[in-house]
Design brief:
15 strands, TIM Barrel, alpha/beta
Length: about 375
C-alpha cells in the first residue's frame, strides 16, 4: 500500500480554491490566474489602471508566477491596493500526494465547491509529463474509465487548470503537458481554450504547442475548433474500429461516431509539426485479434498517425478482461507493417491508481 502524504500547509495567496475567496466586507474576490491578456486589459480599464498594467500583471502571473498581488512591485501602490479590493491571484497548493514505486506522483488539488481533482506527474528519463484534469468527473461515461464512473459534477475554470501546472512541485521540470486527466477537455471548451492560449502565448508561459497534447473522445464541433485554432497535438480515444462495439464501451459513439471523427481529421494536414494519435485500450479476447488490427489499419489509412496501445487497468464495478504485453505485440507489429506507427504504452502509477482510466477524486478519503 502506498503512503498518502497530506499537505496541511496548502500554499496559496490569501485564499484556498476550495473555499470562497471573501474580502474584508464579505465581497467574493475574483481570481486573476487564468485570465487572458484581453481579459486583463478589460480588468485594468475597469479599476482605473493604465492599459500597460495588463501585460505587467500577466508577466507576474505567468512568468514570475507570484502568489500575491503585493509581489507585483512594478504596479503602483495605489494600483495594487485598488486591485486587491476586488481580486486575488488564485494560486492554491495540493492537499495530498501519492508516490508510486515507478516514480509517478499523483497530486490531489482542491477546486471550487469543496471538490477535488487528481493531477499526475510522470518522470521518464529526459521527459517529465504532467497529466492535467479539466473537469471534476466526466459526462462521457466510458465503461472502462473510473472518472466516467464518478459522473460529472463541475467544470474547472482556466484558473484551476493553470494552477495544476504552476503549483505542481515539479513545475519547472516539465517537458510535456497532456490533457489526459479527469474529464473530457473539449466538453469544457471555453476554459480549455483560454488555458491553451495562456500556455502558448508570449505573455503567458510561451510553450511550444508541440509540447501540449489534448486527448478527446471526439466531440466534433469543438474538435474542429481545436484543429483550426491551435497547433497542439491531438489524441483520439478510439478503442475499436467497429461502431457497435465502440458504442458498447463509449456512449459518445452514438452522437459522434468514430468514422465521422476520422472523416473530419482527414481534412487536415498532419504531415508536419502537429501529431495526431489514436488511443487503443486492449480488452483481452475482445478487441485484440487480427481482424481488429486489419480493420483498424483500414479505418486509419491515409492519416500519418500513431496508435498508442494501452493495457486495460481494471476499475471497481466493471467486468472487462485484462490483457498482457505479449498479446499486444502481434497487433502492434501488424499495424507497423501496414505503415501505421504503433507503440505499446508503458503503464505508469498503477499501484497508486494513477494509470490510464483510473483517475477519480473518489479514490480519496476526503
Amino acid at each position: 500500500m502506498q503512503k498518502i502524504i497530506r499537505n496541511d500547509s496548502v500554499c496559496s495567496d490569501d485564499t484556498n480554491l476550495s473555499k470562497s475567496p471573501l474580502g474584508d466586507l464579505g465581497v467574493i474576490k475574483q481570481l486573476l490566474l487564468g485570465k487572458t491578456l484581453n481579459e486583463l486589459e478589460t480588468l485594468v480599464n475597469e479599476v482605473g489602471m493604465p492599459s500597460f498594467a495588463a501585460r505587467q500583471i500577466a508577466d507576474w502571473l505567468y512568468k514570475k508566477q507570484v502568489r500575491t498581488i503585493d509581489e507585483m512591485t512594478n504596479l503602483s501602490l495605489k494600483g495594487r491596493e485598488k486591485l486587491k479590493e476586488t481580486y486575488t491571484v488564485g494560486r492554491s497548493g495540493y492537499s495530498q500526494v501519492q508516490n508510486s514505486e515507478d516514480g509517478t506522483q499523483k497530486y490531489l488539488f482542491p477546486v471550487s465547491g469543496n471538490k477535488f481533482v487528481e493531477t499526475v506527474y510522470i518522470p521518464d528519463k529526459e521527459r517529465a509529463t504532467i497529466c492535467i484534469s479539466s473537469q471534476v468527473g466526466c459526462k462521457m461515461n466510458c465503461l472502462f474509465c473510473m472518472t466516467g464512473r464518478q459522473k460529472f459534477s463541475a467544470q474547472l475554470s482556466s484558473c484551476e487548470i493553470i494552477n495544476q501546472i504552476l503549483s505542481l512541485p515539479e513545475s519547472k521540470q516539465l517537458t510535456n503537458y497532456v490533457f489526459m486527466g479527469m474529464g473530457e477537455p473539449l466538453d469544457n471548451e471555453q476554459e480549455l481554450f483560454k488555458a491553451l492560449e495562456i500556455l502558448t502565448a508570449d505573455y503567458g508561459l510561451a510553450l511550444s504547442p508541440k509540447r501540449i497534447t489534448v486527448s478527446t473522445v471526439g466531440i466534433l464541433p469543438e474538435l474542429k475548433r481545436l484543429l483550426e485554432e491551435t497547433s497542439c497535438h491531438i489524441a483520439i480515444s478510439l478503442h475499436s474500429p467497429y461502431h457497435e462495439e465502440r458504442l458498447s464501451w463509449m456512449p459518445v459513439e452514438k452522437a459522434f461516431p468514430a468514422e465521422k471523427v476520422i472523416e473530419l481529421i482527414k481534412q487536415y494536414d498532419f504531415s508536419h509539426q502537429r501529431r495526431i494519435s489514436f488511443e487503443y485500450i486492449f480488452f483481452g479476447g475482445m478487441n485484440d485479434d487480427r481482424r481488429h488490427a486489419r480493420d483498424l489499419a483500414h479505418l486509419l489509412s491515409g492519416i500519418p498517425c500513431r496508435v498508442n496501445l494501452i493495457k486495460y487497468h481494471p476499475i471497481r464495478g466493471v467486468n472487462l478482461p485484462e490483457t498482457n504485453k505479449e498479446a499486444m505485440i502481434p497487433f502492434r507489429d501488424y499495424l507497423s507493417s501496414h505503415g501505421i506507427i504503433s507503440t505499446i504504452r508503458a503503464s505508469r502509477g498503477e499501484d497508486i491508481l494513477a494509470a490510464c482510466g483510473m483517475l477519480s477524486s473518489l479514490n480519496h478519503n476526503l
